[in-house]
Amino acid sequence: MLNFNVPKHWLYISAGLMWSLVGLFLCRLALSWLIHGDTTSGLIFGSFGLFLALLTYKISLVRIAEKNIQRISSYPEMAPFFGFMSPRSYFMIAIMVPLGYTLRHSMIPKSYLASMYLGMGGSLFLASLHYYYRFRWLKKH
């Protein structure tokens, strides 16, 4: 059987990259939808999306990221590469990916979806910074 153990400090980078890339992908989708609408509604829905991003980051994602960082910190020095996410997180991804696909292909106006996508994408990106900070802190100490 293949052994995918890596030094655990790389799990912080892996988690950060995953959260950053998904966050940026969602933000890119949201912005592409907002750009194709009129300017006024784009500013309104975009501003609401940014507000949601900050709110979601502060209320939940910062706690989830810190909890994941603590979990990774408890691992031995060499840890399974796919351990950068908890089994619950893999389950959530399995639900959220088809849900996102369904929403994108639904009759819901893209401007409304843009606020939700910008909110989730922005909060994921902000929370990803915690992983990079932890990685950098480990490299200094």
Oligomer: single chain
Overall spatial form: elongated
Task: Briefly note the structural class of the backbone.
Answer: mainly alpha
Largest sheet, spatial ordering of strands = 1-2
Q: How much β-strand is present in the residues?
A: under 5%
- How far apart the termini lie comes to 34 Å
Count of extended strands: 2
What order do the helices and strands follow?
EHHEHH
The total domain count is 1
Q: Radius of gyration in whole Å, from Cα?
A: 17 Å
In helices, the fraction of residues equals over 70%
Average pLDDT works out at 92
Number of DSSP helical runs: 4
Main beta-sheet strand count, sense and barrel state: 2 strands, antiparallel
Low-confidence stretches are none
What is the fold's blueprint, element by element?
Layout: E1 5-7, H1 9-35, H2 39-73, E2 78-80, H3 87-104, H4 110-140
Antiparallel strand pairs: 1-2
Helix pairs in contact: 1-2, 1-4, 2-4
